[in-house]
C-alpha cells in the first residue's frame, strides 16, 4: 500500500511477535499507554484554583458565552502524569543521536533556556515604552552584529518567525526592489533547483512568482551554464541552497551569482545549511543578496517538536532599504524601533511592509545570542569544522557498504541513495524504521527528491567520536543484515517503539483530526 | 569549548580515516579567495558564568511587567501561568524533539497536537483546527489567502477594529501576492457598516472581537451579509482568554477563526515566540494551511497519531501548496494545551470572569479621574480611554513613575488623529492596589 507521498506504509508484520507478549494494562514497564485528555478529564474539574469574583455588573452586552466550552479539566497531579507519559513516547536530541538531515539537531544548552526565562526578557511586553526595554533592544543589536559579521550582510531583518517566513521576507525584499526599478510586471519568474526544500517554490508562489526549475549536474551541484540558460529578462531571482540539500557546496556559486546579477536578477540563498560554513566563508562575499538564518538550526534554539523557530534575514546593501517593519535604529546611547511606514520613508527607507504583529521571536533571540557568545568566533568556526568532519567521517566509514549519492567530499551532511538496497526487499523507509529499533532517530528519508530513496545523514558537531563510532557500527550491522536478506528486521520495524508502523494512508483517507465523544 | 565533544586526537584520527591531512581539504569547494583565514572580528568563546553575566546585565536594563502596576495589552496579555506548564514543556523529550516525521517515536508530540487541535476547535466553536501557526497576525494573513482560494476571489475587507498590526500583515502579504485589500478607518466605537463594503469581488471580511479598542462585536449580521454575497467571514481574536466568557466566533457564523494563543500558557517574551490558532469548517479542510495531526492505527491495530493531509503542504506540493509554512509553534502550542488542560472549562470560565471583573473595576476607577473618559460600551479585559492630552506622553510620564499604563493608540496608528486615546488592559494579575496606582498616577500627571 502506498500513502499520498508515494511511500509504502502499513506493512504486513512477518510472523508473530514472541517478544511482545501482552500485559493487562497494555503498559510495558516504563512504556506507559496514555489516554486522551478527553477520555480521562472531566467537565467541571480544574487543576487551577481560581475564586469566583464577587458580584459585579458585567459589560459583555448580550455576548456572554452560552455553551459549556467543552474543555475537559485535569487536577494538577493528573495533568503532570499525562504529559510526562506523553513525553516518554518522544525521541529528542537529549535521548540520542538525531541525524535528521537538513534539520541540524544539535545540543540545546540549558543555560540558554534559563536566560530566556529571566523576567527582564520573558516578562516584558512588545508594546511597553521603548525607554523600558533598552536592554532587549540592545540584545537585538548585538544579535544583529553577530549575524552581520557571520554573513557579511549590510543589514539583518529580525522579524521573520521561522525559515519559511524568512524566505518570504527575503523574496519580498527582492520583489520590492524589482518594483522600485519599475520591473514588477516583467520579472515574474524565480529559478529553483530541483533539489530545493519545498518551502522555496511555495514561497515564490505566495509572492506571485512562477517557478522555473534548474536541473542539477550529475555531481549534485548546479551548473552555472544551466543557470545562465534559464536566465532572462523575465527572471527576478534564483533561490539556491548553499551548501545544498545534497550536502555539497555549490562550487560555482560565484559564477552563478555573476550570471544572475548580469541578468538583472537577485540571488536568494536558503541558509538552512549555514551550520557547515560559520566562520569559513561569508555568504554575502559570494554574491548573495538575501539569506535567512534558521536560529533553531544553526544557533541551537530548541525545535520543541516542530517550533518555534526564528528566521532572521541577512540583506545585502542592494536590499537593506526594503527591510520590513519594525527595525532597530540607534540614536547615540538609545535604541528605538521604527514601527511605521511614514517614519521609515522619512528616513529614506522603503520597507516591504510588516510580517508579524510584533518584533519577531525575541525569546529565541536570547537563546541564539547565548549560544553565539558561548562559542565565540573561534567556537563557531570549530563547530562548523566538527560538523563537516563528522559527516565526512560517517561517509568514509560507510561508503564501501552503502551507496553514497555523490562521490565528493561532503559538507555537514552526507547523502546516500538506495542503489545498494536494490534486490534486498528492503526500502529506505524500512531501513529508517529499523534504525528506530536500535535506539536512533532515523536520518531524513526521501529528501532531497533528486536522489532515489534518499537518506540524508546530518550528525552535527554535538556528537563525540564514541557516539559516531557506535552509530557507524549500527548502520554497518543493519546494512550487512539487509544485504544478507534478513528482511524481517526491516519490513516489520519498528518492533520496540511505542507504536509499530502507523498507517498514514488510513489517516489521510479517513481524516480524524479531533476527538469526538463515542457515539 | 564545552559544547564540542571532539578532542584534537579524535579529529586527527578521523581525518586519517577520511584520508586527508587537514580539515581544509573538506572546504576545498569554497572559492579560495573567499575562504576566511582567521577568526571573524567577534569575541572568543566564554564560559557559562561570563555569558550569564552579560545577558543578566541586558535583562536588567528592562522593566519586567511583574515589577510594576502593568496595564499593557493590545494583542499580548500578561496572565498567570501555572508553574507546572513551564516545567512540563522543558521535559527533554518535548523540548529537544523535532517535527514528528517519524511518528512511531513521536507519539508524545502527535497526541499532544491532536489534543491541542480539539481544544482549539472547542474554544473557537469550530469543527477543525490545525497544529498552530507562527502567531495570530500571520494566521490572519493565511486565513485571507485561504478565503481567496475557497472563493476564487481576490479582495479582503478589513474591519477598522482589526489590530492595526494585523491589518498591516494582511496587507503586506496580500499586496505582495497580488491581492486587493480594503481597510476601513479606525472604528473606535464599533459602529462601522462592513456590509456596505462587501461586493462580488470580496472573498472575505476580517473582523476582530474583542476588537483592538476592546469592544465586543456581534458577528451575526456581518456573517449573514458576507454569506449573502458569497464571501466568507474571517473572525480574529487577540485575547484567547476572552473565549472563556464571550460567545465564540463559531457560534456566530464565522467560516475561519484565527487568533493569538499567547495568553494561555505563554509568557510575554517581548513579542514572541507566540502561537497562532487557526480553525475552520470541515468542508474547507483541504484549503487549510499548516500541519495537521490525525488519528490512525498502527500495524498491530493500536490507536496512534501521524501528521496527515500533507498533500496540502509545501514539502509535497511545492509551488501548489496551501502555504509555505513548515516550522510552526509546537512548543508554544504545548504550553497552551497544558494550561488549557489544567484550566478545563470551569477554570477558564472563572479565569475569564476574574479578568472581566478586574477590567470593570478598573474602568470604574478610571472614570473617577477628571479628564478621563472610558469610551467602551462593552469590553472583556481591555478598553479605550480618552485623555485630555497625548496618550504617548502620559504613558512615558507614568513609566517614569513606575507604572506601565497601557498602549497609546498612536503607537499602533501614528497618523490617525487618535493621539489622545489609550488602550488599557487588566488581567487576573492586577490588584486593587494596581488600579489605585494607575488612577492616582493619572490624576497626578493630567
Automatic annotation (TrEMBL), chain A:
Role played: The glycine cleavage system catalyzes the degradation of glycine. The P protein binds the alpha-amino group of glycine through its pyridoxal phosphate cofactor; CO(2) is released and the remaining methylamine moiety is then transferred to the lipoamide cofactor of the H protein.
Alphabetized UniProt keyword annotations: Oxidoreductase, Pyridoxal phosphate
Single GO molecular function: glycine dehydrogenase (decarboxylating) activity
Residues covered by region (Disordered): 1-24
Record-linked InterPro entries: Aminotrans_V_dom, GDC-P_C, GDC_P, PyrdxlP-dep_Trfase, PyrdxlP-dep_Trfase_major, PyrdxlP-dep_Trfase_small
Name of the protein: glycine dehydrogenase (aminomethyl-transferring)
Catalytic activity: N(6)-[(R)-lipoyl]-L-lysyl-[glycine-cleavage complex H protein] + glycine + H(+) = N(6)-[(R)-S(8)-aminomethyldihydrolipoyl]-L-lysyl-[glycine-cleavage complex H protein] + CO2
Enzyme class (EC, first level): oxidoreductase
Domain Glycine dehydrogenase C-terminal, chain residue ranges per copy: 383-479
Organism, as annotated: Pseudochelatococcus lubricantis
Classification lineage: Bacteria, Pseudomonadati, Pseudomonadota, Alphaproteobacteria, Hyphomicrobiales
EC number annotated for this UniProt entry: 1.4.4.2
Domain Aminotransferase class V as annotated: residue spans: 187-304
TrEMBL record, chain B:
InterPro entries in the record: GcvPA (IPR023010), GDC-P_N (IPR049315), GDC_P (IPR020581), PyrdxlP-dep_Trfase (IPR015424), PyrdxlP-dep_Trfase_major (IPR015421), PyrdxlP-dep_Trfase_small (IPR015422)
Transmembrane segments: none
Gene Ontology molecular function terms on file: glycine dehydrogenase (decarboxylating) activity
Catalytic activity, reaction form: N(6)-[(R)-lipoyl]-L-lysyl-[glycine-cleavage complex H protein] + glycine + H(+) = N(6)-[(R)-S(8)-aminomethyldihydrolipoyl]-L-lysyl-[glycine-cleavage complex H protein] + CO2
EC number annotated for this UniProt entry: 1.4.4.2
Annotated Glycine cleavage system P-protein N-terminal domain residues: 1-397
Pfam families in the record: GDC-P
Gene3D superfamilies attached to this UniProt entry: Aspartate Aminotransferase, domain 1, Type I PLP-dependent aspartate aminotransferase-like (Major domain)
CDD domains in alphabetical order: GDC-P
Keywords: Oxidoreductase
Quaternary assembly: The glycine cleavage system is composed of four proteins: P, T, L and H. In this organism, the P 'protein' is a heterodimer of two subunits.
Family: Belongs to the GcvP family. N-terminal subunit subfamily.
Its biological purpose: The glycine cleavage system catalyzes the degradation of glycine. The P protein binds the alpha-amino group of glycine through its pyridoxal phosphate cofactor; CO(2) is released and the remaining methylamine moiety is then transferred to the lipoamide cofactor of the H protein.
Name under which the protein is recorded: Probable glycine dehydrogenase (decarboxylating) subunit 1
Organism, scientific name: Pseudochelatococcus lubricantis
Organism ancestry: Bacteria, Pseudomonadati, Pseudomonadota, Alphaproteobacteria, Hyphomicrobiales
Amino acid at each position: 500500500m502506498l500513502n499520498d507521498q508515494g511511500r509504502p506504509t502499513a506493512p504486513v508484520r512477518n510472523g508473530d511477535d514472541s517478544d511482545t507478549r501482552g500485559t493487562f494494562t497494555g503498559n510495558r514497564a516504563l512504556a506507559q499507554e496514555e489516554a486522551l485528555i478527553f477520555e480521562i478529564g472531566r467537565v467541571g474539574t480544574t487543576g487551577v484554583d481560581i475564586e469566583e469574583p464577587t458580584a459585579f455588573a458585567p459589560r459583555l452586552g448580550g455576548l456572554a458565552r452560552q455553551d459549556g466550552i467543552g474543555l475537559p479539566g485535569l487536577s494538577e497531579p493528573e495533568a503532570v502524569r499525562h504529559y510526562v507519559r506523553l513525553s516518554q513516547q518522544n525521541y529528542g536530541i537529549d535521548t540520542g543521536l538525531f541525524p535528521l538531515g537538513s534539520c541540524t539537531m544539535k545540543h540545546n544548552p540549558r543555560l540558554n533556556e534559563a536566560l530566556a526565562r529571566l523576567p527582564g526578557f520573558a516578562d516584558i511586553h512588545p508594546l511597553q515604552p521603548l525607554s523600558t526595554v533598552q536592554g532587549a533592544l540592545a540584545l537585538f543589536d548585538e544579535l544583529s552584529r553577530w549575524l552581520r559579521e557571520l554573513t557579511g550582510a549590510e543589514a539583518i531583518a529580525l522579524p521573520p518567525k521561522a525559515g519559511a517566513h524568512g524566505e518570504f521576507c527575503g523574496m519580498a525584499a527582492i520583489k520590492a526592489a524589482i518594483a522600485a526599478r519599475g520591473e514588477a510586471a516583467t520579472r515574474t519568474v524565480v529559478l529553483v533547483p530541483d533539489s530545493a526544500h519545498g518551502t522555496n517554490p511555495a514561497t515564490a508562489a505566495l509572492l506571485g512568482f512562477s517557478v522555473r526549475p534548474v536541473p542539477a549536474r550529475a555531481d549534485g551541484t548546479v551548473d552555472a551554464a544551466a543557470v545562465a540558460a534559464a536566465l532572462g529578462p523575465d527572471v527576478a531571482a534564483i533561490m539556491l541552497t548553499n551548501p545544498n540539500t545534497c550536502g555539497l557546496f555549490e562550487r560555482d556559486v560565484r559564477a552563478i551569482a555573476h550570471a544572475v546579477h548580469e541578468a538583472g536578477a537577485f540571488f536568494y540563498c536558503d541558509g538552512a545549511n549555514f551550520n557547515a560554513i560559520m566562520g569559513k566563508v561569508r555568504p554575502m562575499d559570494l554574491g548573495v543578496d538575501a539569506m535567512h538564518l534558521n536560529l533553531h538550526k544553526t544557533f541551537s534554539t530548541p525545535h520543541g517538536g516542530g517550533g518555534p523557530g526564528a528566521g532572521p534575514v541577512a540583506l545585502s546593501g542592494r536590499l537593506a532599504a526594503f527591510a520590513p517593519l519594525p527595525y532597530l535604529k540607534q540614536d547615540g546611547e538609545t535604541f528605538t524601533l521604527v514601527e511605521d511606514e511614514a517614519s521609515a520613508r522619512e528616513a529614506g527607507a522603503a520597507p516591504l511592509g510588516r510580517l508579524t504583529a510584533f518584533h519577531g521571536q525575541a525569546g529565541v533571540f536570547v537563546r541564539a545570542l547565548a549560544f553565539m557568545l558561548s562559542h565565540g568566533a573561534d567556537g563557531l568556526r570549530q563547530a562548523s569544522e566538527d560538523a563537516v568532519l563528522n559527516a565526512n567521517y560517517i561517509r568514509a566509514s560507510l561508503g564501501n557498504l552503502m551507496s553514497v549519492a555523490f562521490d565528493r567530499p561532503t559538507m555537514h551532511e552526507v547523502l546516500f541513495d538506495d542503489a545498494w538496497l536494490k534486490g534486498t526487499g528492503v526500502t529506505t523507509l524500512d531501513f529508517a524504521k529499523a534504525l528506530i529499533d536500535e535506539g536512533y532517530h532515523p536520518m531524513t528519508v526521501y529528501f532531497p527528491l533528486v536522489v532515489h530513496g534518499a537518506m540524508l545523514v546530518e550528525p552535527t558537531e554535538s556528537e563525540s567520536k564514541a557516539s559516531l563510532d557506535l552509530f557507524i557500527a549500527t548502520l554497518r550491522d543493519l546494512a550487512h543484515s539487509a544485504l544478507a536478506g534478513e528482511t524481517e528486521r526491516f519490513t516489520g520495524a519498528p518492533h520496540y517503539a511505542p507504536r509499530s508502523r502507523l498507517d498514514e494512508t488510513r489517516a489521510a483517507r479517513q481524516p480524524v483530526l479531533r476527538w469526538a465523544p463515542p457515539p | 569549548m564545552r559544547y564540542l565533544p571532539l578532542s584534537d586526537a579524535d579529529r586527527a584520527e578521523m581525518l586519517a580515516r577520511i584520508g586527508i591531512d587537514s580539515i581544509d581539504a573538506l572546504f576545498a569547494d569554497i572559492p579560495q579567495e573567499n575562504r576566511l583565514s582567521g577568526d571573524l572580528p567577534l569575541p572568543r568563546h566564554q564560559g557559562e558564568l561570563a555569558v550569564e553575566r552579560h545577558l543578566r546585565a541586558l535583562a536588567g536594563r528592562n522593566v519586567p511587567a511583574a515589577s510594576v502596576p502593568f496595564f499593557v495589552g493590545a494583542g499580548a496579555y500578561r496572565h498567570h501561568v501555572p508553574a507546572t506548564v513551564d516545567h512540563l514543556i522543558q521535559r527533554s523529550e518535548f523540548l529537544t524533539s523535532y517535527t514528528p516525521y517519524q511518528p512511531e517515536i513521536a507519539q508524545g508530540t502527535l497526541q499532544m497536537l491532536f489534543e491541542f487541535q480539539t481544544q482549539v476547535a472547542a474554544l473557537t466553536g469550530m469543527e477543525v483546527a490545525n497544529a498552530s501557526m507562527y502567531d495570530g497576525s500571520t494566521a490572519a494573513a493565511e486565513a485571507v489567502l485561504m478565503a481567496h482560494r475557497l472563493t476564487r476571489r481576490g479582495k479582503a475587507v478589513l474591519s477598522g477594529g482589526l489590530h492595526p498590526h494585523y491589518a498591516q500583515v494582511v496587507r503586506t502579504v496580500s499586496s505582495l501576492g497580488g491581492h486587493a485589500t480594503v481597510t476601513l478607518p479606525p472604528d473606535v466605537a464599533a459602529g462601522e457598516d462592513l456590509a456596505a463594503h462587501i461586493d462580488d469581488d470580496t472573498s472575505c471580511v476580517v473582523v476582530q472581537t474583542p476588537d483592538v479598542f476592546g469592544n465586543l462585536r456581534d458577528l451575526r449580521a456581518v456573517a449573514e451579509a458576507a454569506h449573502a454575497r458569497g464571501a466568507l467571514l474571517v473572525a480574529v481574536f487577540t485575547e484567547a482568554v476572552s473565549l472563556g466568557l464571550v460567545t465564540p466566533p463559531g457560534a456566530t457564523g464565522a467560516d475561519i477563526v484565527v487568533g493569538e494563543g499567547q495568553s494561555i500558557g505563554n509568557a510575554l517574551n517581548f513579542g514572541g515566540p507566540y502561537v497562532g490558532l487557526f480553525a475552520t469548517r470541515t468542508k474547507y479542510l483541504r484549503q487549510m494551511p499548516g500541519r495537521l495531526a490525525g488519528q490512525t492505527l498502527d500495524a498491530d491495530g493500536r490507536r496512534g497519531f501521524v501528521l496527515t493531509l500533507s498533500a496540502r503542504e509545501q514539502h509535497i506540493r511545492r509551488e501548489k501548496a496551501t502555504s509555505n509554512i513548515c516550522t510552526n509553534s509546537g512548543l508554544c502550542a504545548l504550553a497552551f494545551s497544558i494550561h488549557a488542560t489544567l484550566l478545563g472549562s470551569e477554570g477558564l470560565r472563572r479565569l475569564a470572569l476574574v479578568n472581566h471583573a478586574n477590567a470593570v473595576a478598573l474602568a470604574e476607577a478610571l472614570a473617577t479621574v477628571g479628564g478621563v473618559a472610558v469610551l467602551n460600551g462593552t469590553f472583556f479585559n481591555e478598553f479605550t480611554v480618552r485623555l485630555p492630552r497625548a496618550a504617548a506622553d502620559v504613558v512615558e510620564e507614568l513609566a517614569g513613575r513606575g507604572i506601565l499604563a497601557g498602549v497609546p493608540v498612536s503607537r499602533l496608528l501614528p497618523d490617525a488623529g487618535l493621539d489622545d486615546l489609550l488602550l488599557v488592559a487588566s488581567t487576573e494579575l492586577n490588584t486593587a492596589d494596581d488600579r489605585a496606582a494607575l488612577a492616582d498616577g493619572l490624576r497626578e500627571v493630567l
